[in-house]
Specification:
mainly alpha; 9 helices; homodimer; about 200 residues; Tetracycline Repressor, domain 2
Chain lengths: ~200, ~200
């Protein structure tokens, strides 16, 4: 029974994630989700309690889906293969046809950055985990003098710019630009900073 | 008379820009703007014609305000001073207290990237101009073998990551991270690509 409940919840949140990708997290409501799933609004209200709780659950669900794709990175030996793998996963996520409007978490980062409250707090927590993960892929081969937050910032920068180039500009070359920037970052990370 | 009309329009659009920064462009409506300016909704409808036209006018107004701040870059001699100046302007724009939720254009880039129509087209046009400008600041000192789009991509990347770090994460060090990334990009741009 618990398992069935989990499957139903995952199915509901997959659809919520798709809607948030298309409409923005601000456009996601229990009513919209109910219509889209052909479920009763009251049933979904019973499940989530509020629109805000649904928004938070959707963000956490998206982050969980993405983390599951990222997890195999830990099986790779330390080295450039790790940031390359992480970027490929993120690229696949941004391009995923299940996310018709790009990553709903990334969009929400720019939508909710000034709106105090639990949605923003959830986003900050998710982004901190992502940045920590981005720093970790450089462990074991980056020059030890590098500030890990700097590497994570620069990795995140090229992921954001890839999202912008691929989804907004629909530039075929966005993947090349990001790939070139990534290889330069991997090279740079192995030298002392400031070189 | 024409001048007064222009001033009124600029004042209206400054407020629309502020609201779009806070609420997102999707949250911007003629009704909200009328309330905020204590003007009649019908007057604003007469002025803009539709919510979509208001959204487009607001984006173009924001881009114009930003371009006016950027314009002095052309007075600087070609060299690293140009990308540094451009970044300082963009940083000032992102941090501007008149934009309580960060740059409304950047947020809209992630909000509207999948929504076909004139708003999206306006955003794409604005971003192409911005990226062209970002490429231009490297003219005259970057190694000629560099692809200008690559440099623009990497410059845009650090601006997006600065927005993310400063506005969402509220990281005091975001400016340092972006500054370090910028100096590395300036250095790299002067060497042949792939070095």
């Amino acid at each position: 029974m618990a398992e069935k409940g989990e499957t139903t919840r995952a199915r509901i949140l997959d659809e919520a994630m798709r809607l948030a990708s298309r409409e923005g997290l601000e456009g996601l409501s229990i009513g919209l989700l109910a219509t889209s799933l052909d479920m009763s609004k009251s049933g979904l209200f019973a499940h989530f309690g509020s629109r805000e709780a649904l928004q938070i659950a959707t963000l956490e669900h998206a982050a969980g889906r993405l983390q599951a794709r990222i997890a195999p990175v830990a099986q790779l030996p330390p080295g450039p293969g790790r940031p390359r793998f992480l970027f490929q996963v993120l690229r696949g996520w941004i391009d995923d046809p299940c996310l018709p409007g790009g990553c709903p978490v990334t969009a929400a980062c720019f939508e909710f950055d000034d709106q105090e409250g639990p949605v923003r707090e959830t986003l900050v927590a998710i982004q901190r985990v992502m940045l920590h993960g981005a720093a970790e892929v450089f462990e074991g081969f980056a020059h030890p003098a590098w500030n890990r937050e700097q590497l994570a910032f620069e990795f995140n920068a090229l992921v954001l710019a890839y999202h912008h180039g691929a989804r907004l500009l629909r530039a075929d070359r966005a993947a090349d630009w990001a790939g070139t920037a990534l290889e330069a970052l991997i090279l740079k990370a192995q030298l002392p900073p400031g070189r």
